[in-house]
């Protein structure tokens, strides 16, 4: 059965570029797929996501390390107090880096490393497994910053085989059910 959507308007195949056709209707975890060039539906998607956000933290353009890190630290702790998840998927984007024209913030490389440390300390302190994924960051230097952050987390014992905290390797609780329904 074809999934119907209210987010798109049909684009005829004779129109260039073809971004969407009803034949492409799919969902993932209840969310309709997103096309990066579907500017017409982004407003509806943003409104949908805003309604789903329980802890709204807004930052002004150009925010630097101190303000950013204070908000991260305060809000990660409050979020974990409000709801302790079974697992955290941490989107560790680097588009917050100073000079990134798309991210709009002005966080230093050291600030990014510190942010990751704050998040890992808070989550690990609650004995919750954490999966870090990298994203964003549109500068060549972001690869080095991500590597520095991972080395810092490893050096602090927040990741790696000797980590005393919960991880996928040492947890008695499987992250996924053993048998599919």
Topology (elements, then pairings):
Blueprint: E1 27-28, E2 31-32, H1 39-52, H2 65-82, E3 88-93, H3 109-125, E4 130-135, H4 142-155
Parallel strand pairs: 3-4
Antiparallel strand pairs: 1-2
Helix pairs in contact: 2-3, 3-4
Mind explaining what this structure looks like?
35% of the residues lie in helices and 9% in strands. By secondary structure, it is of the alpha+beta class. It has a two-stranded antiparallel ribbon. Helix 3 runs parallel beside helix 4. It is globular. About 8% of the residues have low confidence. One of its GO terms (molecular function) is hydrolase activity. This is Histone deacetylase 11.
In short:
Keywords: Hydrolase. By secondary structure, the protein is α+β, with helices and mostly antiparallel strands.
């Amino acid at each position: 059965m074809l999934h119907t959507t209210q987010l798109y308007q049909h684009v005829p195949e004779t129109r260039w570029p073809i971004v969407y056709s009803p034949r492409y209707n799919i969902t993932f975890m209840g969310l309709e797929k997103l096309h990066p060039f579907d500017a017409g539906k982004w407003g509806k998607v943003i409104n949908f996501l805003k309604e789903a956000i329980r802890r709204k933290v807004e930052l002004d353009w150009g925010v630097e390390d101190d303000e950013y890190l204070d908000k991260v630290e305060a809000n990660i702790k409050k979020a974990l107090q409000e709801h302790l998840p079974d697992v955290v998927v941490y989107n560790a984007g680097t588009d917050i880096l100073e000079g990134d024209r798309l991210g709009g913030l002005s966080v230093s490389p050291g600030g990014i490393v510190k942010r990751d440390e704050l998040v890992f300390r808070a989550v690990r302190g609650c004995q919750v497994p954490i999966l870090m994924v990298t994203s964003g960051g549109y500068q060549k230097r972001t690869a080095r910053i991500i590597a520095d952050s991972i080395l810092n987390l490893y050096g602090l014992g927040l990741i790696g085989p000797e980590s005393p905290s919960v991880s996928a390797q040492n947890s008695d609780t499987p992250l996924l059910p053993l048998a599919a329904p």
